[in-house]
Amino acid sequence: MKYSFGKFIALLLIISMLAACGTSEGNADASSGNSEGKEVLKMATSADFPPFESRDKEGNFEGFDIDLAHLIADKLGYELEIEDMKFDGLIGALQSSRVDMVMAGMSTTEKRKKNVDFSTEYNHSGEMFISQKDSEIKGLEDLEGKTVGVQLGTIQEEGAEKLSKEYGFAVKKVDNSSILIQELKSNRVDVAYMDKTVAVGYIEEQGFSGFDDPTTSSPGMGIAFPKDSDLVDDVNKVLKEIEKNGKLQGLKDKWLSE
User: By CB neighbour count within 10 A (0-12 exposed, 13-18 middle, 19+ buried), where does 205 fall?
Assistant: First the structure.
């Protein structure tokens, strides 16, 4: 009986050792599969802002910012990891060190600079008002008594709040640009106020009409980082390089040409 019990204990020890070896191999395979061991660069975006960031039919990220982010990550030797979230939560994600950088068509406003650092500006679009094709709204003077829709957390939200006092319209705020377009199509807002490049895309795709905002000279778009991030200088060097060699213009021709 004692002999049988001893054999049983020995067998358990052998099984335990084999299991441990198997676990070790599994972990090694998982880590080596992380793009050859590259350090991960975590980026947040709000993928409802074509042509800067959106998802294709298969659910993959695509757009100008997405291609630019991959180019930057490759140049710096990182594996890019993208997290999708609401636009008005992006600054908080940087402040809490949840992500390393944000690319989301974000304008480099003085207000935002108090909370995050920005790269050099890589694009400038301006703002635009869009409405239904048969709308009689052709300029700012026609907005009195109307409802203008904007996306939460954007520079257009700030701009609309200021303009509403002068031109007498109401401001309706929604979570993302897709909802904003649905609000416009359903006549729950009379006008959508948004980035010009994005607006032009919706005009071409869905037959809206629109006019430029003549009142503002908005700041350009930049890549946002946590305060005092070491990445800022490295990314600025890449932006300078790809602007000089034409790769940045190539991305603009691909995604932003009207």
Answer: exposed
Task: Please state, in angstroms and rounded to a whole number, the distance separating the CA atoms of residues 220 and 9.
Answer: 70
Other C-beta atoms closer than 10 Å to the C-beta of 119 total 23
* pTM exceeds 0.85, yes or no: no
Instruction: Give the CATH number, domain containing residue 64.
Output: 3.40.190.10
8 Å CB contact between 100 and 43: yes
Secondary structure of 210-247 in HEC code, one letter for each residue = EEECCCCCCCCECCEECCCCCHHHHHHHHHHHHHHCCH
| Domain containing residue 185 | 127-212
The dihedral built from the CA positions of residue 98, 103, 106 and 111, taken in this order, carries a sign that is positive
Tell me whether residue 78 is in a domain.
yes
Cβ-contact 183, 149 below 8 angstroms: yes
Is 202 domain-assigned? Answer: yes
The model's pLDDT over 83-136, given as tens digits with 9 standing for 90+, comes to 999 999 999 999 999 999 999 999 999 999 999 999 999 999 889 999 999 999
